[in-house]
Amino acid sequence: MKQSGSIVFLTFLASAASALAQFPSSSSSSGSPSATALPASGRNNQSGLVGMAEQPVAGTTTSVNTLNPTVQISGPFSGSASSTAARPFSGTLSLQEALERALAYNLGAIGAQQTLRQNNSQVTVARSALLPNISSSLSETVTQTDLAAFGLRFNVPQFRIPEVVGPFNYFTLQASLSQTVANLTSVNNYRAARATAKAGQYSMDDAKDLVTLAVCGAYLQVLAAQARVDAAQAQLDTANALFHQSTEQHGEGVLGQLNVDQSQVRALTQQQQIITLRNDLAKQKINLARLAGLPPTAEFRLSDTFPYTPAPVQSVDNAVAEAEKQRPDLKAAELQVQAATKALAAARAERLPSASISGDYEVIGINPAQSHGAFTATGTVSIPVWQGGRIAGDIALAQAVLAQRQAELEDTRAQIEAEVRQDYLDLDAAAGQVEVAQKNLQVGQETLQMTNARNQAGVVSTIEVVQAQQTLANAQLDLINSVFAHNLAKLSLARALGHASDRLPALLKSQPAPQR
Fold first, then answer.
1. What pLDDT, in 10s, does the model give residues 140-175?
2. d(Cα 72, Cα 51) in Å, to the nearest integer?
3. Gyration radius of the chain's alpha carbons
4. DSSP state, 130?
């Protein structure tokens, strides 16, 4: 009997061992957390660019008499999502409407917003390592155990031991909790994530400044292109009138064929120029539409114009100081350095001990009415001894990131000062050229009037008239380019000082555009 009882007892233990082997683990242990690896560069420009450059204007002379700036836009800032579904378009576009649409639908602004969402999500993930983690499970198990698989083989005369036990069932209801008590690596990872998220907010503000520079610059370029077309059309009308007059005078025997040919060449040249200028105007309008989320066509008109007005600016040194306080990209760069500093602290903290607690409570039995509670509570202190050089590698990586971001911070500060000083130079140069161009235009108009009068009196030929027309045309283009350069310099200065959209009303004074 004693031998039979022992065998039954062994059978029970084997069955219990088989059941427990299939239970889920009541508590999980994980390795020590690692410092979050940050990208080497803290700049988040989404591979996009908005800047100023000197470029000849299509359909005009390549003379360097005036500044010929243009807005260069690349990457996501050059595209947009459609804005007409949420905001119907009337066909007339003001600068304010173009700016509002671009800030909401330009891909540069959208990309910055989504990057900020990602950064905030990373803060939530980093914070989760410091908060309690609670989980629960409910399971019902039916099992059958092969005793022979456990090495239990019995051969007792006149007593039969089953080789297979079961099937039998049991259920378990379990709740588990784990909590980090002390882990400086997780704390500094969270701090680094928060600094990155704050930097993302400033990066989004900087992206909005770039969108403002892009869409307002494109708006000004369309206005300048339209002014060139209007000036060329006026020159074409004058050239056609001169050609008609020369033809009549040739028929009367007053002028030779050479004079007629010269006036005709002038008219044909003006026709070629206006074709090129109209093509440039249409493309500039399509570019503006793409920036503002409008259909990519040229079938709309602008409702604002911006004549020359002196810029109400302060001294250069005061402007530089203000820019260093206001520019969001500089604040973002400072926070990126702060994030890299916290990441380095997290890497160094990997060498320190950490503490955590965990526990679980479960109810197990054949059914809920026949169950019993069980619990486990664990406190753990982890002391890193040797990690195969991983910690040293994490520290070296974090140091490299910090050095890169510190260099970028210094470069950003110097770049801001350079932009402000360059914009002041462009502003002064453009203002001086506007003044000269206005005087030159007045002289050109007077010269053309006197030359026409002398031509009608037979004192001079059409050659002098054509030359006077060309001089006047160049003076008109110089004035158009100078006013555009001056407005663009004010726009660029608004971006250089920071919060460009808030500064526009004080720098750009709009007037209603003439009906066409």
1. 888 888 777 777 666 666 666 677 777 878 889 999
2. 5
3. 39
4. T
